[in-house]
Structures are given as C-alpha cells and as structure tokens.
Amino acid sequence: MKRSLFMSLIIAALAIAMALPLYAAGKAAPAGDIPVQGPEGMKTTKPVVKFSHKQHTADKCVDCHHKKAGNNDNAKCNTKGCHDNGTAKTGANSFYAAFHSNNPRSCVGCHKAKKATNPKAPTACNQCHV
Ligand code: HEC
Ligand code: HEC
Ligand code: HEC
Fold it and tell me: What is the mean pLDDT of residues 10-15?
C-alpha cells in the first residue's frame, strides 16, 4: 500500500517534470510568412506586411514577444488589451505605434537602431509594405 503510493508520487513527479519544458518552450515560431492583421474592423491603407521569423533568427523571442515571460502564448500583437487601437498613431495600445515607434521592440524602431551595423534592416515604407 505504502509502496504503491510512493510509486504514484514518483510517476506524478516525472509527469510534471516532463511537461514543464514543453510548457516553457511554448509554440515554435511559424516557418512561413505571417500577415500581421490589425484589430477587427480597422481600415487599412497599405499592403499588409508579411512578417518572416526566418529573417529574424538573431533576435530573441522576447525582443518582440515582450509579454511572453508572464504569458507563454506568443499572443498576436492586436490581442485585446495589447495593441488593439486601430486609429491612434501613438501610445502603448496603438496598433500603428507597435510597428513604427522608436521603441526598439517595434519593427521600425529596431531597424533604425540596427541600421548603422546592419544595412539589411529596412526602414523605407515599401520595403515592408510590399
Ligand atoms: C519595418 C517594417 C515597416 C516599415 C519600414 C513601415 N511599416 Fe507600416 N506597418 C508595418 C507593420 C508590421 C504594420 C502592421 C500590419 C499591417 O497593417 O500591414 C504596419 C501598418 C501600417 C499602417 C496601418 C495599416 C494600414 O494599412 O493602414 C500604416 C498606415 C502604415 N503602416 C504606414 C507606413 C508608412 C507610411 C511607412 C513609411 C514611412 C511605413 N508604414 C513603414 C511595418 C512597417
Ligand atoms: C523580430 C520580432 C520577432 C521575433 C524575434 C520573434 N517573433 Fe514570433 N512573431 C512576431 C510577429 C510580428 C508575429 C505575428 C504577430 C501577429 O500576427 O500579430 C509573430 C508570431 C508568432 C507566433 C504565432 C502567434 C499566433 O497566434 O499566430 C508564434 C507561435 C511565434 N511568433 C513564436 C516565436 C518564437 C518561439 C520566437 C523565438 C524563437 C519568436 N516568435 C521570435 C515577431 C517576432
Ligand atoms: C529586435 C529587432 C528587430 C525587430 C523588432 C524587427 N526586426 Fe526586421 N530585421 C531586423 C534585422 C537585424 C534585420 C536584418 C536581418 C539580416 O541580417 O538579414 C531585419 C530584416 C528585416 C527585413 C528584411 C529582410 C531581408 O533580408 O530583406 C524585413 C522585411 C523585416 N525585417 C521586417 C520586420 C517587421 C515587419 C517587423 C515587425 C513586425 C520587424 N522586422 C521587427 C531586426 C528586427
């Protein structure tokens, strides 16, 4: 009786130990290009940008997925409560600012910062909006 309880505890501990790394790793970065969609109902004026993880393997996941540490799901940028404002051009909830502000986590912000050392990081509108 005691022995089987002990075994169950061992098995439970093993199951948790094996599940943890899976949880910590989260979803892998998709291999293909991802069209970055605005909040629902947002009017768009430019060709939708297709983001490629393959072009960004030098960056850490959390450089962009900056809520990942506390929330392991690599949520979409337009998630409610995140960059869900489709009209504002500035501010933390602005969808536009998430990609164009000078914050080093935004596409343009990081590319501007890296430009000096890496000319391959594009900052012209039509290099992203193709
Ligand atoms: C480094 C990449 C990058 C560059 C450079 C860039 N954008 Fe964007 N832009 C994005 C991303 C990503 C989005 C969000 C996804 C989308 O709407 O395509 C976006 C969204 C937008 C939007 C809101 C959506 C829409 O279609 O109306 C506008 C407006 C916009 N960009 C204008 C510009 C203009 C003007 C420039 C040049 C001054 C520019 N962008 C340069 C990446 C970029
Ligand atoms: C340079 C910025 C950047 C880096 C670095 C990055 N990602 Fe992403 N990732 C994005 C963008 C942008 C999207 C598209 C988000 C959207 O559609 O709103 C995305 C989407 C995803 C998605 C799909 C989310 C969904 O619900 O569709 C997953 C999963 C993901 N990334 C995982 C990762 C992992 C794992 C890493 C590190 C190995 C990583 N990403 C590194 C910018 C980045
Ligand atoms: C943390 C920094 C960082 C962020 C954030 C970032 N990028 Fe980049 N991006 C880079 C660097 C560095 C390069 C140059 C890669 C290379 O050396 O080939 C690059 C290259 C690119 C290229 C050109 C690739 C090529 O070889 O032609 C595109 C397009 C691009 N990024 C789009 C985006 C978009 C769209 C976003 C936002 C959703 C984004 N990037 C966010 C760092 C970043």
Answer: 51
